[in-house]
Amino acid sequence: MRRTVFNEDHEAFRETIRAFIEAEVVPVYDEWFAAGQAPREFYDKLGELGIFGINVPEEFGGAGLDTHKFEAVLYEETSRAGVQFGGSGVHVLLALPYIKMLSTDEQKKRYLPKFVTGEEMWALAMTEPGTGSDVAGMKTTAKLSEDGTHYVLNGSKTFITGGVHADRVIVCARTSAPTAEDRRHGISLFAVDTKSEGYSIGRKLDKLGLRTSDTAELAFVDVKVPVEDLLGEENKGFYYLGHNLASERWGIAFGAYAQAKAAVRFAQQYVTDRTVFGKPVAHFQNTKFELAACQAEVDAAEAVADRALEALDAGELTPAEAASAKLFCTEVAHRVIDRCLQLHGGYGYMNEYPIARLYADNRVNRIYGGTSEIMKSIIAKSMGL
Length: 385
Prior knowledge:
It holds the Pfam family Acyl-CoA_dh_1. The protein has 385 residues and is α+β, with helices and mostly antiparallel strands.
């Protein structure tokens, strides 16, 4: 089936990204994997390439586009090569929508030029130890000073992707207590400078997968945040967080589909080259049937991911549709990658093979951005159940 989601501009971008990955990432990726993060200077190269500015208005140094299709190409090309761009995905997919939606003109002038170049890398700090998906249960507080010039931030966050290298972090904190009618009331968002006194990075977390993205614990002890760095209105943070969940979940869905597609490619290459009992593994009927079944699932996931992409770009992707796409694509990726690893035999368990890394990287897709169980709850609610 011919895809219609991409045009010649996207394909030209694909060629550029593929060449960049081969030249700048593949030769050093094992070093990143061993170190547990991409080097900070790599993000400067992404900035030079223009990746961070695609959806940023031209007046701030960006390309001024309003589309997620170039991000989709990035998902496909990084997965195809079996690599990750560190924690940079959070910078664009998670942080940028909040900056564009909530920043004042003055804030945009301060934030966006450095965002585009990679001089300032951004992350999003929402999750806290012990709260998980219960965002309304957060304990981190931000209290306005008596003179009204700054907030005093206290608390901690965990599972913060991009947290080690981040220069600014969008921190969710309580500025008011929850009300009896609405426990989600009272959360606000702040663009916190990581060089602030009292701000500290705890452990760089040792994850099962996504080993080249820096994920950290953060702590705030009497951190002074200027009132000029409040994003949006006080106490409306939970609403803002919900507003951007559809795009985040689309990103996870599309990334999972791209991983599944890459897994089939890796497996097909392996079984074609690997010889058992005097003939290539690809010649066995079981191999053909397994890969054919995987390809059929990938085709279905591609259709779902592309449809969600078109809806997202049109501003029409509903929370339930985003949840459905995430649930379907991540479950497909789970099944396909597992079967493709099986076709590698013992070598599939070795980290030197991309299928092993892909297997570990993929597992979090059914957890972050809302677990599969939460996606089912959202879908069921939309059905009136």
